[in-house]
Amino acid sequence: MPIESLNRSRLTALLRETPLFADFSEDERQQIARWGERKRYERKNHIFQIDKEGKQFFLIESGKVRIRLKNGDEVTLGPRQLFGEVSAFSDLNRLGMAVTEESSVIWRFPVARIREETDTNSARAVNKLLYACLGQIAKYIHAAPELDHGTKHLVRQGESDRLEFKKTLRSAKREKIMETITGMMNTRGGVILFGVLDDGTITGLTEAEIAEIDGYIRELNNSGQNRLKNSYRSLVGFEGERVDGKVVLRIDVGASHRAVFLNYKGSPRFWIRKGGTNTVIDDFSAVVEYMIRRRALIPTDEEE
């Protein structure tokens, strides 16, 4: 068997055993295997340095690699683990350095070559790879603490990127609420309160709205579970409570460890919260950079 075919079969088998590619079809793994370049590194070889341009990402076949980040964090990776994808899929330079701890065999994936693919099957594999890598990047992010204060205390704080007031159930469009929930998941979590004016006055829900609470929650649950899947089920909670003798509906939203996309007419959208409003990020590289800045590996002047 020619060396190129042998390497492709070897890489396909490695991808099959790598958790990141568990949901890929065999055809998609074979497509990705076409882009890999196999290389052996001796102990203490530098794979990349801090602040260098990132043109490729890596998958370990055997051996160990130590990653040392700018902020001093260190981690040792082993077989079937991916690294280097942060800079490879964004405009950021390397945020750390990678050094082999022992003799290692590592596959390199040049991103420029991957992005040149234009046929339908390859393009599908490329898109799936991009989103899988984004999910991997998102796992690095530390979730922010939840808003665990009482509702009355929260109202005094006023609206923010983590707190949204809605006067009534009926005036709140379902799509806007789903965007807010998704944005809070992708930012720092938060709380949505129904029955509170923009200035913080607690008016409460009307008797008719109180009777509609269960149906409203059911509608949101159906939409959320269909469009956000497991992220919705694990991070969103509802509670009707009485504050100053008035009934309000509270939705608690947790911060997600992974990027959450809201399906809209078959197209995934990445929403964040910024300055108390919902903002969509369309560009994939911008999503990657946002997720990295959220982890505070690099400084930013913007307030998320």
Write the layout of secondary structure elements.
Blueprint: H1 3-17, H2 26-33, E1 37-41, E2 46-48, E3 56-62, E4 65-69, E5 74-77, E6 82-83, H3 85-88, E7 96-100, E8 104-110, H4 111-115, H5 120-138, H6 151-157, E9 163-166, H7 174-186, E10 190-194, H8 207-227, H9 230-235, E11 236-243, E12 246-253, E13 262-264, E14 267-274, E15 277-281, H10 284-294
Parallel strand pairs: 9-10
Antiparallel strand pairs: 1-8, 2-7, 3-6, 3-8, 4-5, 4-7, 10-12, 11-12, 13-14, 14-15
Helix pairs in contact: 1-2, 2-5, 5-10
Task: Please provide a written account of the structure.
- The structure is a single chain.
- With 304 residues, the chain is of the alpha+beta class.
- Helices cover 36% and strands 26% of the residues.
- It has 10 helices and 15 strands.
- The protein has helices at 3-17, 26-33, 85-88, 111-115, 120-138, 151-157, 174-186, 207-227, 230-235, 284-294, and strands at 37-41, 46-48, 56-62, 65-69, 74-77, 82-83, 96-100, 104-110, 163-166, 190-194, 236-243, 246-253, 262-264, 267-274, 277-281.
- The chain is elongated, with a radius of gyration of 23 Å.
